[in-house]
Write a structure and sequence with these properties.
Structural class: alpha/beta
CATH topology of the largest domain: UDP-N-acetylmuramoyl-L-alanine:D-glutamate ligase
Number of domains: 2
CATH superfamily of the largest domain: Mur-like, catalytic domain
CATH class of the largest domain: Alpha Beta
């Protein structure tokens, strides 16, 4: 949908930002109080697929949505953060079609109702926005809800859902350490907080065995029916196809539309999760989902827009919001895969916020990136200074320099391009905030 230039919903959110603190205050007491005033809309939802994880939860959300929509079902989808507009966080299910970004009038009205119900009491804006999720999704008919965790799990505002159809835990690595802990075991324990006694649990591919151990122990303690990647279900690429297997059988499928080898495991987790939630999937439905799945800002190639005009002729431009060391590894692997198919010099244009581990992120690109340009991020008070970020890239073994903007970085890449040189591959990322800036500047916001 087209978001109005003067959005009523965004005006309401600006009001809330002046009244309530920014950021997170991990507790469930305030949102439970607010939901009680709203007559507990979170208890009036269709079956909920609740998804947590450090990396891959957005992709799992996209795959689950595509799978259910391929079955002809109406699916409400909640994601965070957004890229360009707040409305992107709320997709309203459409029977027999793709869920649609919430209409501005509907969103604004829900914000007003939730703010009135809160009556000025202490709360965070994220908690209000989560209450809006439950209000919107309870009042519009649908067959399923896909609910992405915002931060952590145990004390995330989405975790008031009492009986999810399935809880899904995607790959866990270090991120948000001030909130979640400085070891993967501690982070895994926080993510495991979305598991509910007796409710099905699907555990996606885990690179760290201590995290997997914590997740399995938590599911066993809560007597949750459990499916673990690599044990109860799996997937791999074979002759350009996705081979998926679980206790129900084997499926020979097309590779996912989303690029990167990591998406094979993400797709597998989503397939198993939808089955665990009680929905019937045929091979034809899964094939359709693999061909139609979309996830803006995650290894998304720009094929049109203003930024292409600023880049060298015939250059590839990719954007991705991955921002921690684990994400850096899978994105670098995807770039290496592209390099195998068609060799091009790789440039990074990177902006990050100050809660991340930039050296860990950059280290994954040390052997494949030609040069790094570090840029500021608009719309975030927490953006890292490009000079300091360039120093982090240098510490990771990369040649790097700051630039005043993405446009300046592209201009410098053009200046360096020799007339007969192979057109470069440019990866813009390091933060979803930067990706949002890029999609807005390019004139191609998510639809």
């Amino acid at each position: 949908m087209n978001i109005p230039a003067v959005s009523a919903a965004e005006q309401e959110i600006e009001k809330l930002m002046t009244l309530h603190p920014k950021g997170f205050d991990l507790s469930l007491d305030r949102i439970r109080r607010l939901l009680e005033v709203l007559e507990n809309p979170h208890r009036k939802l269709p079956p909920v697929i609740h998804i947590a994880g450090t990396n891959g939860k957005g992709s799992a959300t996209a795959f689950c949505s595509a799978l259910l929509e391929a079955a002809g079902l109406a699916v409400h989808v909640h994601t965070s953060p957004h890229l360009v507009n707040w409305h992107e966080r709320y997709r309203i299910g459409v029977k027999g079609g793709r869920s649609q970004i919430v209409e501005d009038e509907m969103f604004a009205e829900a914000l007003q109702r939730v703010a009135a119900a809160n009556a000025g009491q202490t709360i965070t804006v994220f908690e209000i926005l989560t209450a809006v999720t439950f209000l919107l999704f309870s009042e519009q008919p649908a067959d399923a809800v896909i609910l992405e965790v915002g931060l952590g799990g145990r004390f995330d505002a989405t975790n008031v859902v009492e009986r999810p159809a399935v809880s899904v835990i995607m790959p866990i690595s270090l991120d948000h350490q001030p909130y979640l802990g400085d070891r993967v075991e501690l982070i895994a324990a926080e993510k495991a907080g979305i598991m509910k006694r007796g409710c099905p649990v699907v555990i996606g591919k885990q690179e760290y065995s201590p995290a997997l151990d914590v997740l399995v122990e938590s599911a066993e303690r809560l007597s949750c029916p459990m499916a673990v990647y690599g044990q109860d279900f799996s997937a791999h690429e074979e002759f350009g196809r996705l081979i998926y297997q679980d206790e129900f059988g084997l499926a020979d499928l097309p590779l996912p539309r989303l690029p990167g080898r990591h998406q094979i495991a993400n797709a597998a987790a989503a397939i198993r999760a939808v089955k665990a939630a009680g929905f019937v999937l045929t091979d034809a439905m899964i094939e359709k989902a693999m061909a139609t799945v979309e996830w803006p800002g995650r290894l998304q190639r720009l094929t049109e827009g203003r930024l292409l005009e600023l880049a060298p002729k015939d250059a590839e431009i990719w954007v991705d919001g991955g921002h921690n060391p684990g994400a850096g590894e899978v994105i670098a692997e995807a770039m290496a895969g592209l390099e195998e198919r068609r060799a091009r010099p790789l440039y990074l244009v990177t902006g990050m916020i100050n809660t991340k581990d930039p050296v860990g992120y950059f280290r994954a690109f040390a052997d494949i990136a030609e040069h790094v340009f570090t840029v500021p991020i608009r719309g975030s008070d927490a953006g890292l200074d490009p000079v300091a970020l360039a120093e982090s890239a240098f510490d990771a073994g990369l040649a790097a320099e700051p630039a005043g903007s993405v446009a300046e970085a592209l201009a410098e890449i053009v200046r360096r391009q020799l007339p007969e040189a192979v057109p470069p591959r440019i990866l813009i990322g390091g933060s979803l905030y930067l990706v949002g800036n890029v999609l807005a500047d390019n004139g191609t916001p998510p639809k």
